[in-house]
Structures are given as structure tokens and as C-alpha cells.
Amino acid sequence: MSDTPPETITGSTDPMTETREARMGGVDNRFNSRLREAFGSSPFILTKFDQFMNWCRGSSMFMLQFGIACCSLEMMHTYAVKHDLDRFGSGVPRASPRQADTIIIPGTIVSKFAPRMKRVYDQMAEPKFVVNMGSCAISGGPFQEGYNVIKGAEEVIPVDIHVPGCPPRPEALVYGVVKLQERIAEGESSPVTVKPYELEQFNDLEQDELVNKLASQINEDDLVMRYNWADSP
Amino acid sequence: MSLERPRPDQSYVTDDGVDYDAIEELLGEHVLGRETHINAEGFVIRPDEVQEVLFALRDQAGFDHLSVVTAQEYGDRYESIYHLKKYDDPTQELSVVVPTSKDNPVSQTAEPVYRTADWHEREAYDLVGIEYEGHPDPRRILLPETWQGHPLSLDYDQDRPQIVTLTEHANPIADDHYESESDTMFLNIGPHHPATHGVLHLKAVLDGEQVVDVDPDIGYLHRCEEQMAQQGTYRHQIMPYPDRWDYAPGGLMNEWGYARAAEDLADIEVPEYAQVIRTLGAELCRICSHMLALGTFCLDIYGDFTAIFMYAMRDREKVQSLLEDLTGSRMMFNYLRLGGVAWDLPEPREEFFEKTRDFLDDLPEATQEYHDLITSNEIFQIRTIDTGVLEPEVAKQYGATGPVARASGIDYDLRRDDPYGYYPELDWDVATDDGCDNYARLLVRMQEVEQSAKIIEQCIDVLESWPEEDREIQSNVPRTLRPEADTEIYRAVEAAKGELGIYIRADGTDKPARFKIRSPCFSNLHTLPEMSEGEYIADLIASLGSLDIILGEVDR
Fold this sequence. Notes:
The structure holds two protein chains of two kinds. Chain A is an alpha/beta fold. Chain A has three domains: 7-39, no CATH class; 51-186, Rossmann fold; 199-231, no CATH class. In chain A, 37% of the residues lie in helices and 10% in strands. Chain A has helices at residues 7-10, 14-24, 34-39, 49-59, 70-79, 114-123, 134-139, 170-186, 199-203, 209-215, and strands at residues 62-64, 92-94, 102-105, 129-133, 161-163, 223-227. In chain A, the strands form two sheets. Chain A has a three-stranded parallel beta sheet. In chain A, helix 4 (49-59) runs antiparallel to helix 8 (170-186). The termini of chain A are far apart. Chain B has a five-stranded mixed beta sheet with strand order 3-4-7-6-5, covered by helices on one side. In chain B, strands 11-12-13 form a three-stranded antiparallel beta sheet. In chain B, strand 6 and strand 7 (94-101) form a beta hairpin. Chain B is built from 18 helices and 18 strands. By secondary structure, chain B is α+β, with helices and mostly antiparallel strands. The two termini of chain B are 32 Å apart. The longest helix of chain B has 31 residues, at 272-302. In chain B, helix 8 runs antiparallel to helix 9 and helix 14 packs parallel to helix 17 (537-547). Chain B has helices at residues 20-27, 50-59, 117-127, 174-177, 225-231, 251-266, 272-302, 308-327, 349-375, 378-384, 392-397, 402-406, 414-417, 438-464, 520-526, 528-532, 537-547, 551-555, and strands at residues 13-14, 17-18, 31-36, 41-45, 65-73, 77-85, 94-101, 106-108, 131-133, 162-166, 185-189, 201-207, 210-217, 336-337, 340-341, 488-495, 498-506, 512-518. Chain B folds into two domains: 13-133, NADH:ubiquinone oxidoreductase Nqo5 subunit (Beta Polymerase, domain 2, 2-Layer Sandwich); 225-555, Orthogonal Bundle (Cytochrome-c3 Hydrogenase, chain B). Chains A and B meet through helix 5, helix 6, helix 10 and strand 6 of A and strand 10, helix 5 and helix 8 of B. Strand 6 (223-227) of chain A pairs antiparallel with strand 10 of chain B, so a sheet runs across the interface.
């Protein structure tokens, strides 16, 4: 063994040529993205700024690290080895809602948790997207008849994608997230603005026994959730 | 209250177990009547003599473990049942039944006798509506403070609207702890926080970096599991729910908890072949569950998302793939049936055996890797050794079980002490450790993984040599089960987190009249303030991680 590199490397331009050829086309076109196709031979691209932004958004999404129930285990597996959601550009969980674009709702939402979830959702910067994971987040799932269970996350926050299952397999969640990315990139899923808390709705309540009892205890500035179980789907 | 107590003499025990007549004599005129539950005798006592009776049973008859408090409402009365056991021998059981009247459901608290009664009685108040006189902290525990009514009472109207507020939390001890030099800070940890392992909310009061007071606020995942079970028929409709209590996944162990109680209630035999399959599946689940505990614990305390967490996830994937071959599902198995299992091992059997053996062959190397990465790591040792100390006597007071109790030197494992399934035929050991700290709890879990592997290996050998014509997976069970009215049972199994017990009262229909879940995580979590008050906030997080709670099981 000598210290000098072999002749095949120093004296040849083959490696560089091969790489360049691989990038420009040929047998291995891994490097030919749709963007490159769009560019063609010219270094300019004409598009609408909105479209460009949508494409950017859909291509890189930060998830909120948000575990509720059983589904959060499968969500962890989706982020972890084997399934590795990061391959699709959306697998970096952020612990703070301020840094996240997408919230996956992985589990049953109960009356005590719904206001907290809403608060976390409100704290996320817009535009923000919601993926419902599993039957519980969609409709209450197997617990729908429970006295304490909210019949779906959609009662509290707007939802973009539902991934059914109990729990969905990691593959299914990957599919759901990729679909969401696609929709965002195509501009089909637009950000929704929601009013923070429905204080007005609460003020309009009929004066029943419960409201009378609580009215004195509730501060106008309080955050309030009202559950009308009889009207729930 | 002193935690020292005299060594109970053995005079209340006969060769067959507890000598109930001697105990009746001991309690004397406190006993109003006797009930026979399938697992133990029940002594009916007056609601204002609870403490006296329980003190006598604890200090003189040696019942040092309050498993659970079951509350229920009958047409004419409320009833609290204290299920007592002994840590030394959990087959010695006894129930104390405390009836209270309908119009004044007040019963004396058992909290001075067993610390664990604190939370159990709060839950009884919350869900059923019995009040406990002298209780130190009579609040709701699972439902929001503003909740109207008690959902498991008979006249609860489920359609009633409810209002839940989200108020700012005030510092509860600011007034009496405030001095000009030192100030305390109130800190909310959770319910959405990466280190709480789910939706747990810790109300912590800090003095500098030290925890002065911590109050776990649970109920953010209270999804009415008991109500769901009470609405389902024994035969098929209840079995899917246990998978969702401890979803780590402790699925098969939880299912076994329900199956064991219901089978003993309805007197159903389970073929031995099915017992072997159950044992195999349950131990696979245990490995899976402990791997999660290990991965997230390390994630909590030295922030390693790349190596240890991913390695643990990799090993979980392997186990889940085996479980999927066996049961058809990655997490929610629904594989056990009353009187057996749903189907036989997957065909071709050799492939399943080989795959399992491959996993077991790789396991020692993986375990060694974890030891290299974790237990021999200096940072890890500094974070865990001598932090979160839980003395054995304290652990018993709180009803801690499972790895948490065993790491405090309490040699208590229902698989051995209250044998069920195929465990008595197999050769394995109960892992214990005298460390009492966070480090010991992790070591116990890692040893248990090794023991589980040992059990699985033997199960595979047994299954492989089982004669083909004798593979009975299911005994004869009537299509509709209607256990006799007024039969009551409390049965427990050793789940990954500890003693998972089920209390069922039958009323002659095909659905249980009362279904109560004794969740190990609930009692284990109750020890958290004991472990972390006076310690650093960072050690609080480590202690919480080492308890390995699953909120689905804490809140049910």
C-alpha cells in the first residue's frame, strides 16, 4: 500500500463525468426531480408565488410532538426506524406548538382534554394543518358512547385529513401525511382561521340549572368549553 | 403514623389460606355480616368503623396491601369494597364491604391506614358519588372540577350538558410559603409535554430548582373504560377494550386479566395448550412494553433520540411483527377468548418458531448493547442512582406493584405467587433489586426482559413438541354467558406494570353490573410525590420516567 491514490482516481475524469451524467439523465435518474424538469435548460422558472409557497410548505412540514392515547405509540413507530416518516419530508417532531405546522391527533379526546388541545392548536403558527389519526379522533371510536368522550376532534378544531384505523398502521399514517402534503402542495388544503374560544356561544346559553350554578364562578375572561352531549352526533 | 409495624403472627392462617372464622373473632362485633365472594370472604362493617377494622386487619392479621377500592351503587344502598391482600402471599385475600345509605352516602376514609386509599376514594367519589369522611383531599380526580353528577351512579343522565373551564392555575402554597428571601414558583408540566408520557398534568411548586410540592392531575384520558365494559356482553364485547387500557402494548396481559376474572366467575376451563399460547403471547407483550419504558426513559433523562430510543423501537418492531403473526394485529390484538384463544399458531408453524427463535437469539446481544449504552454510562448513573428513592414500606403503603415494587426489594410477582397460566410449569426467576432508586427500576425491567425471553423459549419448545391431535385452543363455552346473580370476584394478573386486577359483579344478565379495573399505573403514579418532593426538578422527570406509566391505564 502506498500513500498516493491509484491512477484510476488521479488520472481520470471518469468519476466526475459519471456523476454529472447521472445527474443529467441516463440510466440512473434519481436526481431528476420535478423541479429540475420544470427548469428544463433555462435557469428561470415562472410560477405564481402562491403556488411556489404551497409547494414549499408541502415539501417540508414540522409535526407537533403530541401524544394522546394508543395511536401515539403507532405515531412514534412512524417516526422511528423502519417506517421513518422523515423520508417524505415531514418527520421531525417539534416539542413546541410554536414551531410546528401540522398536528396529528393520535387518540381519544375527553372533555377535560379538549380545551387543552384547542389551546395547543391555537398556539401553533398559521398556516396549520390537522391530521386525525384513528377512529377515536374521527368519531370517538370504540369509546363513542362514553359519558366523557368527545365525538371526534372535529367538534373542537378543523381537520384536514382523517386516517381511519384502531390504531392505523404506520403505513396508513404515512399515506395520510403524504396525502396531506400533496394537497397542500396542490393548494387544495387551505389554512383555516378559527376564533379562539366560543365565549359568545357560552353567553347565549339558555339559563338552565347548570348555567345558573356555574355563572357566578365563571369569569368573562375565562376559557370555556361547553359540551352538549345530547346534540353530539 | 408510623410505618414501623409489628410482625403479624400467623394465627389467622390455616393450611387452606386465610382463617376467616378467626378473623371474624378478631373483628368481633364490628362484623355485621359475611358475604362470600369467589376470591375471598367479605366482611360487612359499619361505615363509621372503617379505620378501626382496617387497622386491626393490617396490624394484627397482616393484610398490608390494599389492592383497590371498588365503589358501586345498588338499588337500595351504596357500597365500598376494600380488597385486601398480603404482599407476602397474595392468595390470602379478604374483602371489607362498607354499605352506606342512599340518602347519606358517607363513609369513613381508609387513608390513614393505607395511603393508597387517598386516590382510590377520590375516584369512588368522582365516579359513583360516595363521600369519605376525614379524607385529606376530597376532590374529583378523573373528571373536571365543574362536572355535574357522578357518571357511574344509577340515575346519571348522560345527555346533560357540561361546561369545562380552563382557568389559570394559582400557586396553591404561595400564601403560607412566601418570604421575602425565598419565593416559590408554580409550574405546570403537561398535559401536553414530551416528558409526561401522554396526557399527564403535574402541578409542581418549585423553590429554585427543588420541588416543594407536586400534584399529579390525571383524567385527561378518562375514556369511560368501566362504563364501556359494563355495556358489553361477557363473551365478545368486552375483550377488545383491555387492549386499550395499557397500550404499550400490554394487550395480551390485559386481556388475560379480564379473561382470568371472567373465567373464574363463570367457571370456564382453559385447555392447557391455550394456556401455553397465552403465556407466550403475554411475555412477548412484556418485552415490548419494557422496551418502550427503556427507550422513553432514556429519551427523558439524557435526551438521546437517535441511538437508544431508535434501538428500543427497532426491537419493539421485531416483537410487534411476531405478535402480528400470532394475533393478526400490531397492537390491538383481541386474541384471547374466554376459555382459550382465538386461533392456533400461524401456519407454517416452523416458520413462526424459527422467527421467534431468531429474535431470542439476537436478544442477548441487544441487551448487552443496552447495558453498554445505558447502565454503564456515567451520565446515566449520575442521573439515576439515588434519585427517586422509594422505600419498601412506603411502596407498600401506596400499593405499588410490578417493577416499581420489585425494584424496592418487594418480592411480589403474581405469576409466581398467585399462579395462573403455564407459568408454574416453567423455569424462570422473579427479578428484584434492593436499590429502591430510578436505576434499580430500569435494571429490574431489563432483567425481566431476559426472564421473559427465557419463558418464551420454553413455551416454544413445549409448543413444538405438543402432539398434533391434542391442540385444543378453546374449551366449550356457552354462546351467551349469564353468570349467576350476585356473584362477585376480584382477580388479578401480573401485567407489565404490576398487579392488574378486575372486579366483576354479575347480576344474572349477560353484562356485568359492575366492572372495576385495578390499574397498576394508577397506584404506581401515586408514589410520585413521595419520590420527588424535596428533590430537583430534573429528578422528578427521571422518577416519572422510571415509573413507566401509561395514561390510558391510569385514567381508564
